[in-house]
Amino acid sequence: MKQVQNAIDAEIDKKKRFYPNKEALLLPVLHAAQRAYGWLPHDVMEMVAKSLELPLPKVKQVTSFYTMFYKKPVGECHLQVCNNIACYLRGSSDVIHYIENKLGILPGETTKDGLFTLTEVECLGSCGTAPVIQINDDYFESVSRSDVDKILEAKQ
Ligand code: FES
């Protein structure tokens, strides 16, 4: 947990002069905490709240609103498949079912080896290249079944 606290402190030091108040600084600090720990359990949210002198319910409210903040552990490879309207119309449901069958998991689940987590998400802001999958920090666009095969093989 020392490593997480260090990441939180470093982010606050680095970014505080760019943000008008502690509420605005909350998002980058939560990202830093998540990068350091992998997800945001209660203890980590509490560290963020104390470090920014914000009420814990405020921190929990923000993390519950954004799907980019993980409330449970995710696999090494987090597949976030957009199933909003543009992606849906271009076959994202088929892509999701294909991944479910290949990995033997449903959205919200992680494979037993801890390698893959599948999550269905709202618009990823790349509707012109639908369907879109975000894997960790990378976008994969105009994704087909054969692209899924290549992506998963490269990650295994
Ligand atoms: S609807 Fe999928 S990226 Fe916008």
Indicate the radius of gyration in whole angstroms. 17 Å
How many strands?
Answer: 4
Order of H and E elements? HHHHEHHEEEH
Characterize the overall form.
Answer: elongated
* Order of strands, widest sheet: 2-1-3-4
Domain count: 2
Q: Report the structural category.
A: alpha+beta
Class of the largest domain, according to the CATH hierarchy? Alpha Beta
Number of helices: 7
- Which strand-content bin applies to the residues? 5-15%
Main sheet summary: 4 strands, mixed
Q: Tell me the CATH architecture of the largest domain.
A: 3-Layer(aba) Sandwich
State the end-to-end distance.
29 Å
Query: What are the low-pLDDT stretches, counting only 5+ consecutive residues below 50?
Result: none
Which small compounds were modeled alongside the protein?
Answer: FE2/S2 (inorganic) cluster
CATH superfamily of the largest domain: Glutaredoxin
Average predicted local confidence, pLDDT:
95
- Percent range for helical residues? 40-55%
Reported by name, the CATH topology of the largest domain is Glutaredoxin
Describe this structure as you would to a colleague.
With 156 residues, the chain is α+β, with helices and mostly antiparallel strands. The protein folds into 2 domains: 2-65; 77-155, Glutaredoxin. Helices cover 51% and strands 12% of the residues. The chain has helices at 2-15, 22-37, 42-52, 56-65, 85-89, 92-103, 145-155, and strands spanning 77-82, 116-121, 133-135, 138-140. The protein has a 4-stranded mixed sheet, with helices on one face. A hairpin with a 2-residue loop joins strand 3 and strand 4. The model has no long low-confidence stretch (mean pLDDT 95). Bound molecules: FE2/S2 (inorganic) cluster.
